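User: I'm writing a tutorial on reading structure tokens. Could you give me a worked example: one chain, its sequence, then its tokens, then a sentence or two explaining what the tokens reveal?
Assistant: Sure. Here is the example chain.
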Amino acid sequence: MSISAVRSLCALLVVLTCATLDGATVSPQQADAFERKVEQVRAPRRSGSPPRRTPLTQDEVNSWFAYRAQPHLPQGISSPQLTLVGDNRVSGQATLDLDAIGRRRASGSWMDPWSLLGGRLPLSVTGTLHTRDGIGRFALESATLGGVPLPKLMLQELLSLYSRSESQPRGRSLDDPFPLPSNIRQIEVARGQAVVVQ
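And here are its predicted structure tokens:
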């Protein structure tokens, strides 16, 4: 997986899906298992073969975040965690360094709400991931920053900031559908596990 793809995936997972790891099993072995499964998903599927279903557990994803993700995380985001709630609902948490985000945004306006914030605060986001026919869409249910409700507009600014690229200089929109990578047709989210269908 390319560095930019990993960073985009991390940013998307961190901003769109984040919660605590109570009772979770996080280990280097689980991180290795996640990396093997990602390679399996990236591998071409033989023409005419039945659909490939690759299960990814919540513990594997969170182990990868804990042991392998740090070099790929955008500046200002740390400690991402994911909860696969079930019925395609996801929830998660990450710590935001608001000083780093303020420097990165550098709008210069004293009226910019990000310029008024500082320190490190937990960001929590919950919503539903809809996927079908190779297209995904995230329906936001709630977001908080430091336990205070975060307006959707400010969450959109974070997503835009971290998803900018040459092809999308303004970044991604929270409401827009997005193509799933590696010929993924859909992702089925159950409690504690997601199944990638190709």
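What the tokens reveal: The mean pLDDT is 86. The helical segments are 3-16, 28-42, 58-67, 98-105, 152-163.
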